Amino acid sequence: MLLCCAAGKLTAQHSFAFNNGPVMNKYQDSLLRLNEATFNADNNEQRFSLNAQFIKTLVNSLKTHGSFAFPFDSLKKISVVKSADNSFRIFSWHLPIDDGTYRFFGTIQMATKDGKLKLYPLIDQTETIDPNQITANKTWYGATYYEIVPVISNGKQPYYILIGWKGNNTKTSKKVIDILSFVKDEPVFGKAVFGNDNSKNRVIFEYNKLNSMTLKTDKNVGMIVFDHLAPFTPDMAGNFEFYASDLSFDAYKIVNGKLKLIEDIELKNDPNAQDDLYADPADKKNQPVKKL
Fold first, then answer.
1. Residue 87's closest CA among 179, 25, 180, 172?
2. Exposed/middle/buried for residue 201 (C-beta within 10 Å: 0-12, 13-18, 19+)
3. Exposed, middle or buried: residue 292 (CB in 10 Å: 0-12, 13-18, 19+)?
């Protein structure tokens, strides 16, 4: 199986009554209007101003007692993914920039025994950090996450595999496998758990913007499955504008708490190659998240 422990052991550790549904629904309506206005904005200045209002309203909504239980499922342009052990969830989203690049935003909301707010804001520092750097929440290698996979080995505190869409620019797209752990109750991104290469703290895939890439867990094989990317021709090696799937698949299998690379796997059913989870970045007014 995909996890290194029985799924039944990953039980909810925190629970509390949730009685503020009407209040949260009002907040969600406000967030939905702000989110739509943000993506319909004509330029960066308007986009960032509206996004700032969205963030303020989101934080205020999360201050509502018991907000962890509210799903925010009407916010189609925002990804909200919860860990299987119910200990935290991540809100993440992107803003398209006029030059064809992206800025990422997010926060980690922790489950608390009393239902009070505990947040870790995620500050995108993609442009200033080494992509392989181990970082904190305020030096985040931004992405929009659509899967969280917990890993427990030998009874140790779990770490979490985050699978996300990174966007990039007008020529290439990126996806990422990042690692989240909590050290002294603080989030840490990146970890040397990729067994085939101890120098890697996260894995980044880059490929031609017009092509798609599958990156997802596949329960049929119990692994994280992804397209093998290759250049169109050998002389294009290293120029990711000319990379795409060669119709074969590789995977990461969790073995003894590490991610072991398995090349050229056979799948019983072809993965659903939905990508890029977003509409064309040129169309800033139509970019819903399609959750896998």
1. 180
2. buried
3. middle
For residue range 187-223, what is the model confidence (pLDDT) as tens digits? 999 999 998 788 999 999 999 999 999 999 998 888 9
| Residue 188 CA neighbour count, 13 Å, CB half | 14
Total residue count of the chain as it appears in this document: 292
pLDDT in tens, 235-260: 999 999 999 999 999 999 999 899 99
Phi, psi of 124 (to 5 degrees): -70, 120
In the sheet that holds 258-265, the strands lie side by side as 215-218, 223-231, 243-255, 258-265
Nearest to 227 by CA among 246, 210, 202: 246
Q: What is the pLDDT of residues 217-236, one digit of tens each?
A: 998 888 999 999 999 999 99
Q: How far is CA 82 from CA 45, 92, 149, in A?
A: 32, 12, 10
Q: How many CA atoms lie within 13 A of 94 on its CB side?
A: 31
CA distance 45 to 50: 9
Task: For residue 47, give the nearest of 285, 289, 290 by alpha carbon.
Answer: 285
DSSP secondary structure letters along 88-125: EEEEEEEEE-TTS-EEEEEEEEE--TT----EEEEEB-
